[in-house]
Amino acid sequence: MSEAGVKDDGVPPGLRIAGAWSWRLVAIAGALGVFFYLVSYLRLLVIPLLVATLLSALLVPLKNWLVRHRWPKWLAVTVAELGTLIIVAALIYLVVAQVRAGFGDLRDQTVTSVHDLRVWLTGPPFNLSDSEISGYINQALSLLQTDSSVLLSGAVSVGSTVTELFAGVLLTLFSTLFILIDGERIWAWIVRIFPKRSRQALDGAGHAGWLTLQNFIKVQILVASIDAIGIGAGAAILQLPLAIPIAVLVFLGSFIPVIGAVATGALAVFIALIYNGWVVALIMLGIVLLVQQIEGHVLQPLVMGTAVKVHPLAVVLAVAGGSVVAGIPGALFAVPVVAVLNVMVGYIARGEWRTPSPIPATATAKAKDTPLE
To answer: What is the residue range of 226's domain?
Structure first.
């Protein structure tokens, strides 16, 4: 078509540009949809692999440090992985032992608190009668019975869920082990899949993303520790039972940004309400909110923002979007995925990979420091 024909086709230039961008955006959206579908379909493989990657980001520096101090590689890998298993098992045992020791008392206190609540509802300002309270309880029970089929199906699926969980744990352990042992060759194989012209850019971007992931996991452990110490110490000062399990659960929950520590901190408020009444519960709520304010306004902007180079608004949106798409796993992995992609895209866009590097690409030679080792 001639230039005159192009100008006289009756399509405004702005609409032509919008149409060109539209089909590209539709293609990108379709590709993302297929990608997320595959991730959801293969979640039993994807989630353990992502967990193993986070663990490896924490354990690879330890393994490398041991190797630099003349430890045999097999011993360094063994100490790193077994040490992690021992620490996790010790935390779980501590929580289970504390809960078992205080379960009877917690049950009795719960029954007493429910009785006190019933007495409070019968007095002013509610002035409910026993029959009205019983009617509300019966309505709740009828709703529960109406959904009994759903509960039954959920109970039937427990066996498969436990099996999937066990398989996921084994897959996580094996993936972490092989990343620690042979992470360099795994990364080199991934790089070699891509065209030769893009290998240097991908290798450099992967290295930058791996360093960001290491910074993220280190800072996240620091933030989780501060949350656990703050809320756990508050529970201990208020002489709440199960203060140690509360601190451990807050530590684990803090790995889900924004909502994790709040959800686990609510457990401390509930226990304070059951054991010590609403005054102590309000004090415990104030402690939880204070710790969260320190995390949100000091630790996240200054420490986490510097480590992962992601704006706090992007963190909140990533967690919200991840939770909508994939629930708790999505909220857990949203921030590290966004942080790593942000660094990798920025590295490629800046063109730093075009400058000669004294370290050869891992796809063609063995590097001293690669994204996985």
So the answer is: 41-149+157-354
Query: Does 3 map to a domain?
Result: no
Nearest CA among 204, 154, 183, 209 for reference residue 373: 183
pLDDT higher for 358 or 216?
216
pLDDT at 9: 64
Least confident span in 3-12, 18-27, 35-44, 114-123: 3-12
SS3 of the chain: CCHHHHHCCCCCHHHHHHHHHHHHHHHHHHHHHHHHHHHHHCHHHHHHHHHHHHHHHHHHHHHHHHHHCCCCHHHHHHHHHHHHHHHHHHHHHHHHHHHHHHHHHHHHHHHHHHHHHHHHHHCCCCCCCHHHHHHHHHHHHHHHHHCHHHHHHHHHCHHHHHHHHHHHHHHHHHHHHHHHHHHHHHHHHHHHHCCHHHHHHHHHHHHHHHHHHHHHHHHHHHHHHHHHHHHHHHHHHCCCCCHHHHHHHHHHHCCCCCCHHHHHHHHHHHHHHHHHHHHHHHHHHHHHHHHHHHHHHHHHHHHHHHHHCCCHHHHHHHHHHHHHHHHHHHHHHHHHHHHHHHHHHHHHHHCHHHCCCCCCCCCCCCCCCCCCC
Domain membership of residue 20 (yes or no) is no
The per-residue pLDDT for 72 is 92
> Which CA distances in Å does 111 have to 105, 108, 259?
10, 5, 29
Domains in the chain, number = 1
Tell me the whole-structure pTM to 2 decimals. 0.71
**Is residue 93 a part of any domain in this protein?**
yes
**113 domain residue, yes or no:** yes
- The per-residue pLDDT of the chain, averaged, comes to 77
User: Span 107-120, mean pLDDT?
Assistant: 70
Q: Output the pLDDT for position 146.
A: 56
